[in-house]
Amino acid sequence: MKFVTVFSFFLSALSITVNSQTIAVHKTIDKVIVDGDLSEWKNTFLGPFVIHNSGDKASQNTFVSLSWNDENLYIVYRSADSKIIGKPQKPDSRIFDTDDLVEIFIDADGDGKNYIEIGVNAYSSYYDVLLKCISPDCGGWKMSMDFNISGLETASKITPEGFCTEIKIPFSSLEKIENGNFLKPNIGTKWRGNLFRIDYGNTTEYQALQPYKSLKFGFHQPAEFAVFEFAN
Fold first, then answer.
1. How confident is the model over 171-177, as a mean pLDDT?
2. What are the start-end ranges of the E strands in 69-189?
3. Distance in Å from the first CA to the final CA of the chain
4. Of 7, 144, 23, whose CA–CA distance to 73 is shortest?
5. 40, 55, 133, 183: which has the highest count of C-beta atoms within 10 A?
């Protein structure tokens, strides 16, 4: 999709601040080309993101929009960034330790096990991780960086205001996750998840679309994930 440079957050007029813990994922019939250009994207943007464990205003705005069709889930981000930190890196590099990036976590059945994490930096570099367990109840922290989502597409484009990112996640690949219960969604299907950004610019900030009510630190709080509801 092509980009129109009205990024300077005229978005505030087009965006919605999320107050509930349910995020609607609207169905699309439009063809989505994953290239980091968002001018053809028609869905409403949500945001801006806030500091994830306080709800305080972030230094730089981030907005997100989600959509789906019968084959894929699509997530697009618009991130204001006056000082982009990062570089092109190999897939599955630990860019979450070093680079400005956006992330999505999805736990289809909401049990806090066998859920996915995807992160993408401003240079389209990405990682995909399977979180098998994070709790002592299931044996302690177990994650797989060797996990790969077949058909995953990511693209970012640096703009004068920051960077834009698109992610395409095929449902057919998620269905293969053992004990993940990623059944192909229908209208009304509800998954658990949240959307994040790490900004290492002028000051390090951990941002989320939905802040955690408990004020705990760390993105991995699946008990507090929001609800993604697939809508028409």
1. 97
2. 72-80, 101-107, 115-121, 126-133, 142-144, 153-159, 162-170
3. 22
4. 23
5. 133
Taking only the tens place, the pLDDT of each residue in 72-102 is 999 999 999 999 999 999 999 999 999 999 9
Tell me, rounded to whole angstroms, the distance of Cα 135 from its chain centroid: 22
Give the CA distances from residue 221 to residues 6, 127, 154, 165, 170, in Å, rounded to whole numbers and listed in that order: 35, 19, 25, 24, 25
Helix, strand and coil content of the chain, in percent to the nearest 5, comes to: 5, 40, 55
Q: Give kind and range of the element (H or E) at residue 109.
A: none
* Amino acid residing at 154: T
Distance CA 55, CA 49 (A): 9
**8 A C-beta contact, residue 183 and residue 111:** no
Length of the chain: 232
Coil, strand or helix: which one is 120?
strand
Cα distances from 231 to residues 35, 79, 155, 167, in angstroms, run 25, 25, 25, 19
Closest by CA to 75, choosing from 114, 39, 118, is: 118
Write the DSSP assignment of 25-94 as a string of letters.
EEE--S----SS--TT--SPEE---EETTT-PBPSS-EEEEEEE-SSEEEEEEEEE-SS-------TT--
Global pTM value: 0.91
- The owner of tokens 């190999």 is 90
Quick check: 127 and 119 in contact, CB under 8 A? yes
